[in-house]
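At this stage, I wrote out one protein's amino acid sequence and its backbone structure tokens, and that material follows here:
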Amino acid sequence: MSSMTQWIDRSPGFDIDAPVLRVCDVHASFRTRSEFVRAVRGVSFDLARGERIGIVGESGSGKSALALAIAGLLEPPGQVERGEIWMAGQDLLQLTERAMRAHRGKRIGFIFQDALAGLNPVKTIGSQIAECIRTHEPAASKSAAQRRAVELLTEVGITGAERRVNEYPHQLSGGMRQRVMIAMAIANEPDLVIADEPTTALDVTTQAQILRLLERMAASRGCAVIFITHDLGIVAGFCQSVCVMYAGRVVERASVDEIFANPIHPYTEALLRAIPRPGAGKGAGRLMEIGGAPPNLALLPAGCSFEPRCPLGRGKEVCVDEAPEAVSLRGDSPSPMAECHFARDRFSALAERRRVDP
């Protein structure tokens, strides 16, 4: 346990077995003079302590808007219209901005996609990490916070931390800057870390190192991780469960194993067909694009948002006229869920196929 443990103030009634995060029917939008964009539409999920969940989907599916809503960082013209986001016995959406600032950094750490943009170019990395610490623990001395910054840089794999702590962001490589962002995110032992496309701009070797680092941090500290990405390959190797988003909705939610072995929603199946599969034979490795384009979130259809692109439901009356409801596919908890008119039929067919040909 780190030397920072004595600084962590767990609220009365803290329950290690309770979900670290509960998102309930959250709706978020962007309103301008010309249009009203419904970016997040009724998203709900629980996140257990230490769980790593991937939120995936094409650009514009609502992934980042959801992450910003959870962290209280959705700025005008964006707004959370309704819903609940529970953490440590509090609905974060009911907190004042001042109270929410106390949550961010202490209970919630955020890792941004562009580390260079997320760091102050005129401050040393050590002073920025120390600032994160002292913001939430004013009693900590500057020297203690600086020592802790060195510890954190060492923990995230930066060699020569005693020297690097006095360097500026531009003096570090992209991978090292991302490690600094991780150090800042975990500086106050948060219960939740939100990583929004943190490896997009990195080469594959550095990307793998960052993912191993995040996995180790989650395992050793027990913090939950929300990993926002469009890369299902990363999800397969890093996450334990998946929420697939389309047009602001979670259209399928299940464990990683279930999603990759038996996708239920046609959109999930299409996403999986669009990723390369190492070792596939000649011709079998060809990527299958998803035809069409995501819907305009300011002009959503009455029925299923995926219907115009869906090989299963395109043109079918029920899909054109009625929005599908979320369907729990098993009786256990947590049960996989899919939002499709044909979800139960597809699930039953897959179960029968496994029974006949295990």
User: Anything to note?
Assistant: Residues 204-221 form the longest helix (18 residues). The first strand starts at residue 21 and ends at 31. Residues 1-14 have pLDDT under 50 and may be disordered.
